[in-house]
Amino acid sequence: MIEPRRVVIVGNSASAWITAVCLDAVVNDGDFRPADITVVGRDEIRESPGLDATLPDLRHLVAVAGIDEAEFLKRAGGTFSHGIRFVGWRPEACWYHAFDRHRSGPIDTSGIDWLASDHGMPFAETVSAQPALCKDGIAPRPLPGVREFPRLDYGLHLDELRVAGVFRELAAARGLRHIADDCGDVERDDNGRVVALSTAGGARIEGKLFIDCTGIDAQLIGRKPGVPWVESSYSLAGDRVATIDIPYERHYP
Question: Residue 71 carries which DSSP code?
Fold first, then answer.
């Protein structure tokens, strides 16, 4: 019989619970459970939801976790996203980063072909139907029962707090442990590897694999001596993100 290896995930964010559930889905199978997964993180209290715009990869993780996408969207307060629309960055009206695009073959020459053209059509519209669907207000996924519809890749707009709740409930149902406490001291061996951590309440937790899901707090990786903060703001076109709610009367007057 294989002795389970303890995996310790630090953090109580959506990323921590997604990591825990997907790792369990991939590694453990019924009574065969080589990974003993524990999530360490105090319950967060937040008055307002954090809104997340995700890439199509999250839909893959939802599938890996074994969650029905339609049910997930209901519980997470989600909606569809064809891509990203950039407005006002250049003199042109806007341009699209579509999440689904046609590729001409293993070697994609779409960009080279467009650069050699007269640029009469925006690049995104030459490789994806999604800019046109956005303009017409058509979702990337049809209603149940509709068969004649192109298969498109798409992202999701979600309430991060509710996403964390969905995966946290699933983790509890699958028997994963949650220690609702802050991470305290971190123990390392002579090679600098994390071997255990203590919580603010005094519990000591050993593990074979530690995963830091605490974001910019970096509660594990940020405490290792000699690991500097790498400043990369010089390479960013923008230095902040603002989310606002605005009236949208086209479909919801």
Answer: H
Which of 152, 245, 199 is closest to 41 using CA atoms? 199
Structure tokens at 137: 């207000």
Which domains does the chain carry?
Answer: 5-69+162-223 (3.50.50.60), 83-153 (no CATH)
Number of DSSP helices (H) and strands (E) in the chain, helices first: 7, 12
Angle, helices 160-173/69-76, rounded to nearest 10 degrees = 120
**Position 243 pLDDT exceeds 80:** no
Dump the DSSP string for 171-193. HHHTT-EEE-S-EEEEEE-TTS-
Task: Give the tens place of pLDDT for each residue, 39-76.
Answer: 999 876 555 557 788 889 999 999 999 999 999 999 99
CA angle 72, 152, 135 (to 5 degrees): 100
Q: 3-class DSSP state for residue 14? A: helix
Please report, in angstroms and rounded to a whole number, the separation of the first and last CA atoms in the chain: 62
The string of DSSP letters for 149-163 reads ------EEEEEHHHH
How far is the C-alpha of 196 from the C-alpha of 26, rounded, in Å?
24
Q: For residue 114, which amino acid is it? A: W
Other Cβ atoms less than 10 A from the Cβ of 226: the count is 5
Phi–psi pair at 158, nearest 5 degrees: -140, 160
210, containing H or E segment: strand 209-212
Residue entry with tokens 């891509």: 83
